[in-house]
Amino acid sequence: MRALKPELYTIPASGEAPALRGGTCACGYVFFPMQRYGCEKCGKTGDALTPTLLEGEGTLVASSRVLMHARKDRQAPFVVLSVKLKGGPIVRTLLAEDTDKFLPAGLRLKACLVEVDGPGDGEKRFDLRFAPAA
Predict the structure, then answer these.
(1) CA-to-CA distance for 47 and 110, rounded, in angstroms?
(2) Which domain holds residue 96?
(3) Is 10 domain-assigned?
(4) pLDDT tens-digit series, residues 47-57
(5) Which of 45, 32, 26 is nearest to 5 (CA)?
(6) Do 35 and 61 lie in a common domain?
(7) Are the beta carbons of 32 and 20 closer than 8 angstroms?
(8) Are 128 and 76 contained in the same domain?
(9) Which residues is 112 bridged to in the sheet?
(10) Mind listing the pLDDT tens digit for each residue in 6-41?
(11) Cα–Cα distance between 112 and 10 in angstroms, integer?
């Protein structure tokens, strides 16, 4: 299985949710994705920022269905989500499958990998999405 953005998430064992590659600052602030520029909360850099695997589960904060998109490689319609990760930050992501159904705030979501087209080479890859938790 080849990931489209392996720097952002793990490839899980069968049946498990992918983990997101985030970070934690010495001040306790948790962020995604991992970066070394400095903590958004306190400004610390360097060794104060450590890689952290964030659980691929959370709750829906907001969603919006996109019906038209300017990029030719992004086929509409699709649903954009803001998800509050369990023990982590709010991340913006995509719903695993398009729907025109109302998604209520607080809906439990779980990360999953879905098959997508690769970057222009025709090869299929997997990318991170979120789906309602069972």
Answers:
(1) 31
(2) 55-134
(3) no
(4) 999 999 999 99
(5) 32
(6) no
(7) yes
(8) yes
(9) 129
(10) 899 998 777 778 999 999 999 999 999 999 899 999
(11) 10
48-75: string of b/e by CB count within 10 Å (b at 16+)?
Answer: bbeebebbbbbebeebeeeeeeeeeeee
d(CA 81, CA 99): 12
Half-sphere exposure (CA, 13 Å, Cβ side) for 112?
15
Position 1 pLDDT exceeds 70 = no
Q: Record the tokens describing residue 46, joined without a space.
A: 């360097």
Cis geometry, peptide bond prior to residue 33 (ω within 30 degrees of 0):
yes
Cβ 1 vs Cβ 113: under 8 Å:
yes
Q: Give the integer Cα–Cα distance in Å for 87 and 58.
A: 8
Strand extents, DSSP E, 37-123: 49-54, 57-66, 78-85, 90-94, 108-117
- Signed CA dihedral, 69, 104, 9, 46: sign only: positive
Residues 28 and 45 in one domain: yes
**Do 98 and 41 have their domain in common?**
no
